[in-house]
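Q: I'm writing up a methods section and want to include an example of the input and output format. Could you take the sequence below and give the corresponding predicted structure tokens, formatted cleanly so I can copy it straight into the document?
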Amino acid sequence: ALIALLRRWPMWPASLIVLVAAIGATRGLDLAADGVEVVGAVAAPTFALHLPSLGRDAWLRVGELAVGLVVLVFAESWGSMRSLALRRGDALNADRELFALGAANLACGLLHGMPVGAGFSASVANHGAGAQSRRAGVFACVVVAVAVAVALPALQWLPRPVLAVAVISALWHALSPRPLVATWQLGRDRLLIAGAVVAVLVLGLLHGMLASIALSLVEALRRFSQPVLHELGALPGTRNFVNRTEQRNAEPVPGALILRPQEPLFFASAERVMAEAASRLAASGAATLVLSLEESADLDSTAFECLMELDLRLARRGRRLLLARVKEPVRALLRANA
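A: Here is the clean output for your methods example:
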């Protein structure tokens, strides 16, 4: 109630005032003796700069946790940065932002600190307080340093419920179902939205996030592996080749069947695409199959092998395979293995 009241005056740090008042009330009224859970003693950081000395089993455990932690830090940090950048109309440099996160975590690791990221609660609180530039981060660093040097012993009296209220109040005005509703109305990724929400609620934040990413990868593999082939034809009087299903006046090339895979060729889709192309060539009676590879910026080993097998199979039947709109990496691969 006090935080809500103080928010009428934006220049006053409402959460900080309430936290200080709660610490004073806990000490003065001995609320801990009445069962109010407090944060407890917080050890002062030592800032000892050295590599961790861990055994083999401990390093393996750290490696297991690091995978999920990287995913969690990246997802939360990038989501926070992107949402706030869109709200302010700013542009993000992904390389710079992720380099800063990596450098910060490397420094924290060498100093035995906690993993850091652009947490949603802290980012929203910073934005809500009116931060406009990098000076806000410098000012926050100075305040934290002063708090560690002067006020750290007092944190042991901070009630955990009040700390929870401070975090909730920082996020409350930013919580909105509109992004989920807008994505749902697009008619895309509905299964992923529902799966991510259920996974986080059932499995917790870390494992729920990992399950959501796994679900996204499975859905991407399923979509890309579908053998969608469009037959192309020439527009009359031009050299433009378009989808014959969409352009009814597009004319086929006599003696040739021109097909374009809708998705990039890779290990999960190449076999099915080549089989579908061979089947449609046999049904058309054409002597030449032209594959337009404009959607494939590169080929993995499986896709390359499938392409070579299709070429040999057609050659045995007295037909030929031609490739069109080949990107330079694919062209270099074909030249090197001709």
